[in-house]
């Protein structure tokens, strides 16, 4: 056919759309094709809706920080949990990620405080103890007033290693160190545990 | 245990994070849990990276518009295809969505112009012919210079209905109206077709 042939004239999307696709592609689990789908969804929004969405992305990072006490992500430091007089300040639950705090809170039974490590010790990923919030946990314990540290890292190799490392580090200090009980399926993720399983883990925690 | 019990004190995330989760939840195929995962990924970015991401979301909508000729999404109107002197202006390929333009462009063989409907006629979704860019297509044909209109809507009920509707509308006009050939699997989506299948569909297009 005479209407076909010749060099490709136009292969991609307008620059602002292409830039958004690139940004969406950086998100975990989002490939190029999904990123396109998301970008074109944004184009179906009104300009003010898209602006609001964009502002929410920027603000989530800009308007949050780490709580000076527990290292959880918060908009006001100390965070709502650390400021709450009704929480048991002698009890500290150590979790890997901020999402894990939300999971434990969903049990509606835990009344202690938290400490968020922001990761686990992982030689494979080049994460040493200095790369997670272990020094701040130790300082917190040394300051006194903590009777028990519950190690609630995920029950996998890296989570167990991290728990063991912290347990050894805290051994010289007058603090009870416990680990969540079995109940969370091995290989599973704390973040996705149902409330009942997680509550049972809390109740059955054992000395480490 | 004395350390447990009492009302839930803290159930969700800091407001800026919660707002971002809500925004991500609006995206197609993203549920609450995925939205949380994406929001926490954004928190791992630097503040300038998050700001850049947010700006990309706002800019994608703010800095694009519809091409005055073909209704495709573009940063400059008329769009790059419509401005290109090497394209065959007598040939117009009618597609449902901007993504479909990119799919046809990937054949690297099509040299005509486009017309983007931004949807299909769908009584089920309450989309009438007035809700898609059919009037602008008719005006374009009436203006003259168009020898052939290729109807490249998806080969499903709504795409076929829309193609038939447009074919009838254009019947009184001195223009050839064709439909993409079979080759695209029925029930499939134009957007995801491989180049070879799509090229075969173009070459085998038939009178409607």
Structure description:
The structure is a homodimer of 208-residue chains. By secondary structure, chain A is α/β, with parallel strands linked by helices. Chain A has two domains: 15-62, Orthogonal Bundle (Helicase, Ruva Protein, domain 3), CATH 1.10.8; 65-207, Dna Topoisomerase Vi A Subunit, Chain: A, domain 2, CATH 3.40.1360. Chain A is built from eight helices and seven strands; from the N terminus they run H-H-H-E-E-H-E-H-E-H-E-H-E-H-E. In chain A, strand 3, helix 5 and strand 4 form a beta-alpha-beta unit. The N and C termini of chain A lie far apart (77 Å). Chains A and B meet through helix 1, helix 2, helix 3, strand 2 and helix 5 of A and helix 1, helix 2, helix 3, strand 2 and helix 5 of B.
Write the layout of secondary structure elements.
Two copies of one chain form a homodimer.
Chain A lengths: L14 H11 L6 H13 L2 H16 L2 E2 L6 E2 L5 H4 L4 E8 L2 H8 L6 E5 L17 H9 L5 E4 L5 H14 L5 E4 L15 H9 L2 E2 L1
Parallel strand pairs in A: 3-4, 3-5, 5-6
Antiparallel strand pairs in A: 1-2, 6-7
Helix pairs in contact in A: 1-2
């Amino acid at each position: 056919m005479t209407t076909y042939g010749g060099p490709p004239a136009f292969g991609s999307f307008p620059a602002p759309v292409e830039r958004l696709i690139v940004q969406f592609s950086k998100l975990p689990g989002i490939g190029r094709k999904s990123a396109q789908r998301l970008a074109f969804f944004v184009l179906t929004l009104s300009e003010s809706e898209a602006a609001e969405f964009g502002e929410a992305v920027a603000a989530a990072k800009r308007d949050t920080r780490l709580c000076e006490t527990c290292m959880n992500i918060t908009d006001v430091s100390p965070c709502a949990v650390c400021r709450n007089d009704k929480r048991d300040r002698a009890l500290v639950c150590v979790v890997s990620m901020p999402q894990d705090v939300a999971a434990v809170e969903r049990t509606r039974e835990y009344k202690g405080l938290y400490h968020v490590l922001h990761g686990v010790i992982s030689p494979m990923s080049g994460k040493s103890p200095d790369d997670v919030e272990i020094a701040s946990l130790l300082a917190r314990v040394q300051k006194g007033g903590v009777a028990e540290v519950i190690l609630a890292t995920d029950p996998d190799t890296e989570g167990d290693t991290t728990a063991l490392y912290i347990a050894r580090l805290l051994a010289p200090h007058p603090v009870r160190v416990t680990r969540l009980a079995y109940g969370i399926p091995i290989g599973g993720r704390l973040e996705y545990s149902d409330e009942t399983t997680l509550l049972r883990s809390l109740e059955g925690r054992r000395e480490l």
